[in-house]
Amino acid sequence: MHSKINKKSNGLALAIGHIFGDGGIQDNGRVHYCNSEKFLIDEFMNSMKVFNIRPWIKKESNIIRVRYPVKIGKILWNLFEKFSSGKDTKIITSQIREMPKKWKAKMLQAWFNDDGSVVNMPPNYKVIAIKQKLKPLTLFIRDILNESQIKSQVIEDNGTWLLRVHGYENIIRFREHINFSKGYRKRQKLDEMINSINRPHLVAKKKILRLLEESPKIIKEISQLLDLNRNVVYCHLHGWKRKNRKSNKGLIDLGLVRMKKRGRINLYEYSVSPTPGFGWEGTGSSTDAQC
């Protein structure tokens, strides 16, 4: 059976992700998984069909438990080393770390299905989060996200480790590269959260950057090419100054654009070295009509 299993299959990636999430392997090799949501139980069992063994299933009042025999755990250990072998023993083995990027992204999808959450709180707290007991697991999740240019923050939270993905650009990249499984309620919730984010200024900023990547330009030229008010272009470059509220950084503050004097003319050019400490996704929440 071992030789016939394609360890790079998406199904096996999902299985490993669920084992890291709400499952595990006992020290004798028995594989177990439990959840209150039938969708996730079905996804896990479908991912384990590669072994062609029917699991033991027990339904309780609000939870479903699934178990596979010892030999399945031993096969998984042969494939990926002992990444789980008892309570709180989960580790990232070299075999898992060296798997292809897309495989690890699919594994992470199942992991987020189990342990992840979508937090959409008014007015502007919009976050994808996942919490783990073990810091090395949390840092591994961060590393996989980084492979797809998804920035995240890891903090200690009452004895556990919390990873948060925030900022429009990062959330969009999460949906493109990781996401939750199709048909799962968390995927719908993520779509709803993204649709609730009103960030037209990001679109305009991107257009300005593309123009400046081509060649340096003055505000008048940018305004004409993009059909934007000159004051709006100025604000995108220099930031929004607002009374009694936090000002928003412009492309110059973010280190993405440089301004140079040419006599009495201000010439703007693209910068390839963003200022450390500033993130593109942190450019405030104003609209193009504000300055």
The share of residues in extended strands comes to 15-25%
Largest sheet, spatial ordering of strands? 1-2-4-3
Count of alpha/pi helices = 11
Low-pLDDT runs of 5+ residues are: 274-291
Reading the helices and strands in chain order gives HEEHEEHHHEEHEEHHHHHEE
- How big is the Rg? 24 Å
When the domains are counted, the total is 3
- Mean pLDDT level: 88
CATH class of the largest domain reads Alpha Beta
Distance between the termini: 66 Å
**Any idea what the shape is?**
elongated
Give the helix/strand class: alpha+beta
CATH topology descriptor of the largest domain: Endonuclease I-creI
CATH superfamily of the largest domain: Homing endonucleases
Judging by the overall fold, what is the CATH architecture of the largest domain? Roll
Can you count the beta strands?
10
**Helical residue percent?**
40-55%
For the sheet with most strands, the description reads:
4 strands, antiparallel
Structure write-up:
The protein has 291 residues and is of the alpha+beta class. The chain has helices spanning 10-21, 38-47, 70-80, 94-97, 101-115, 135-147, 168-177, 185-195, 200-214, 219-226, 230-238; strands spanning 23-25, 31-35, 56-59, 64-68, 116-121, 125-132, 153-157, 160-166, 257-262, 265-270. The protein has 3 domains: 2-90, Roll (Endonuclease I-creI), CATH 3.10.28.10; 114-195, Endonuclease I-creI (Roll), CATH 3.10.28; 200-282, Orthogonal Bundle (Arc Repressor Mutant, subunit A). It has 11 helices and 10 strands. The strands form 3 sheets. Strands 1-2-4-3 form a 4-stranded antiparallel β-sheet. The chain starts with 9 loop residues before the first helix and ends in a 21-residue tail after the last strand.
